[in-house]
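[User] Could I get a sequence and structure tokens?

[Assistant]
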Amino acid sequence: MTRDAIPARPGDGDGEDGRGTPVGRRVVLGMLGAGAAGVAAAPFLQRAYDSTLGAAAQKDPTGLTGLLPAGGGFRYYSVTGSVPHKDERTYRLTLDGLVRRRVTYRLDDLRRLPQTRLVRDVQCVTGWRVPGTPFEGVRLADLLDDAGVRPEAKAVRFTCFDGAYSESLTLEQARRGDVLVALRMQDKPIGHAHGGPVRLYVAPMYFYKSAKWLSTITVTERVEPGYWEERGYDVDAWVGRSNGRDDAPTT
């Protein structure tokens, strides 16, 4: 069952998992710019996304493969050299911490829960945007209610099966109706390069908050800065109102 979508607002969303330090990724991209044309010309990168571009993206933390045809406007970032693949048999999502009961979900378990579909712009803090991108999944608030959040809880921490990435939200932010544990993107199952089979989707924040390859949701006493916050990004990543920007759309 799919719930009614929350109306889209121009500019909501954001780009993939980050950019290194606030200056570092731009420096790297500048250094690699001269080579980008040569990479773009490589014939094998023009084949189908799932079989070739997606695989190349996993070896390209700079995101340059996202500039190629079939990239769909996305830049593909990973903070590790490789990420294991999870499927119907091996994927598990655990919700633990300051809850009344620890819960573990399989993919089928998540699919059986009420689904919410959102259509928003994906907006990266580094500047690129993919407009009108559908995401579908379970509202994080529903999973928190299912586990029973304890009174002393104030925040939620997310960790990922790449073994390195993490993110956090306040409990109030996590309970928003536009924060999903996403199973589908662009009306199809989320592929590995996009953080599948399950990723976080925080619609009103820059996309580094939408952690890929989600494996654990932990309810905590305080917000713990995530991977990119520890490297200079804002903890509260509202689109247009954070990370030195003041260009939020009028709503």
About this structure: Residues 10-80+87-231 form a domain with the Sulfite Oxidase; Chain A, domain 2 fold (CATH 3.90.420.10).
